[in-house]
Design goal:
Blueprint (H helix, E strand, L loop, with lengths): L4 E2 L3 H6 L8 E6 L5 E6 L4 E9 L2 E10 L4 H16 L4 H11 L2 H16 L3 H11 L13 H15 L1 H20 L28 H9 L4 H13 L3 H5 L6 E2 L4 E4 L8 E4 L2 H12 L21 H11 L8 H12 L4 H8 L4 H9 L2 H24 L1
Parallel strand pairs: 1-2
Antiparallel strand pairs: 2-3, 3-4, 4-5, 6-7, 7-8
Helix pairs in contact: 4-5, 4-7, 5-7, 6-7, 8-12, 8-16, 9-11, 9-13, 13-14, 13-16, 14-16
């Protein structure tokens, strides 16, 4: 043990060598007596406290590094040492806490310690948990097993579809993994549960659907949502970015929309076609908020749920099985139909692939602008043809 005493710092811990396969390496902190870290060949590093409890040596798990910081590990170790001095067995106390912990408890911990800090779309996790996983939210974690997860997955699939079922499974898998990293003694009941096989969606607005779609959309009395749907189609941007579009991101003169952070964590500059600029200028005339699509009733300050309007537009147009996200695919598909290559399409839609990264770095907005304009003009040309017919 003496030979393995080091001063725990992040740099030192990250530089420690991995042990041979099947073995565990142990190192101990020079500042807190008994605080150690065990390192596995898989690169997993776990803090623990090694102390005599009730006269017997015991190893008490604290949590994984770096999810648990060195300072947090030292603080937890000091607390356990004080408990032991008072005759309290930390392992037994931890077991009692684990016995009482519910799924909702570890989900809330996941939100505060991870999702809100690292995920821009953490509110979607809250929505998915409350809508699809609420049936087992108050179950004690120790009682949740693999069969229960499979039953929940099948129930979600039956009532809502395979995509929410798969998203819910992925969310639960992450929540349990994080709980274990932070010191929960248990196994992940989602391990080994397979996702449902998903079909890659290829739906987009076809040539014969375009005139009916435009006619129905133009007749929509709710101008705010009508313009939102148009901008979604004309920019190919993600739903969350269009909903949260703000005037400070828009440059009318340069015909660009600068999104500082997209879903993939990077910024994106989107070309705005003449049709999009026309809509934005009209919205600018009635502006009363920093949001392009404001709402006085939502917490965010901008519109959040266009499903009702979307359904009405589709019903009037006689179009089935089309989602708002398919408008993003529609722009890309029409770009391809008017001669754009995959790199130009990827650039305009903000796709991120290793293969395209080097090419994206050399692309300016000019070929993207030309491609989007051609695709937009082609889509609007169908409306003119539809009127002549």
């Amino acid at each position: 043990m003496e030979n393995n005493k080091i001063n725990f710092t992040k740099a030192i811990i990250l530089s420690l060598p991995l042990p041979e396969k099947g073995k565990i390496a142990y190192y101990y902190d020079v500042q807190v007596s008994g605080l150690g870290i065990m390192i596995f060949n898989s690169s997993t590093k776990t803090f623990f406290l090694y102390k005599r409890v009730n006269g017997r040596p015991d190893k008490i798990k604290i949590g994984r590094f770096p999810e648990i910081t060195i300072e947090q590990a030292r603080k937890a170790a000091y607390s356990m040492i004080n408990d032991i001095a008072l005759g309290v067995n930390p392992k037994e106390e931890k077991a009692k806490q684990n016995d009482a912990t519910t799924l909702k408890d570890i989900f809330n911990e996941f939100l505060e310690k991870h999702a809100k800090l690292h995920k821009k779309t953490w509110d979607e996790d809250v929505y998915n948990f409350n809508r699809y996983i609420r049936a087992i939210a108050n179950k004690k974690v120790k009682d949740i097993n693999k069969n229960m997860i499979i039953e929940l997955q099948q129930s979600i699939s039956k009532n809502y579809g395979i995509y929410p079922a798969n998203h819910s499974l992925a969310l639960l898998h992450t929540v349990f993994n994080k709980a274990i990293e932070w010191g929960y003694d248990g196994v992940n009941p989602c391990s080994g549960v397979k996702k449902f096989k998903e079909k890659s969606r290829e739906r987009f607005l076809q040539t014969d659907e375009m005139p009916r779609f435009f006619e129905s959309l133009n007749a929509e009395p709710n101008e705010l949502f009508r313009d939102y749907i148009y901008i979604s189609l004309l920019t190919g941007a993600r739903r969350s970015n269009v909903l949260a579009m703000s005037w400070q991101e828009i440059n009318i003169e340069n015909k660009t929309w600068r999104i500082e952070e997209t879903k993939n964590g990077e910024s994106q500059t989107i070309h705005l076609s003449d049709q999009a600029i026309e809509i934005l200028k009209r919205r600018l005339e009635v502006r009363y908020s920093n949001w392009v699509f404001p709402s006085s009733t939502s917490k965010s300050g901008h519109i959040e749920e266009p499903k009702k309007i979307w359904k009405r537009v589709l019903q009037k147009a006689g179009i089935e099985d089309l989602r708002i996200h398919d408008l993003r695919r529609t722009l890309g598909s029409w770009q391809a139909a008017t001669g754009a290559n995959s790199y130009i399409i990827g650039k305009s839609l903000g796709h991120k692939t290793q293969q395209a990264t080097a090419i994206y770095a050399r692309l300016n907005l000019d070929p993207v602008r030309e491609s989007v304009n051609k695709a937009t003009d082609a889509m609007f040309a169908t409306m003119r043809k539809g009127n002549r017919n």
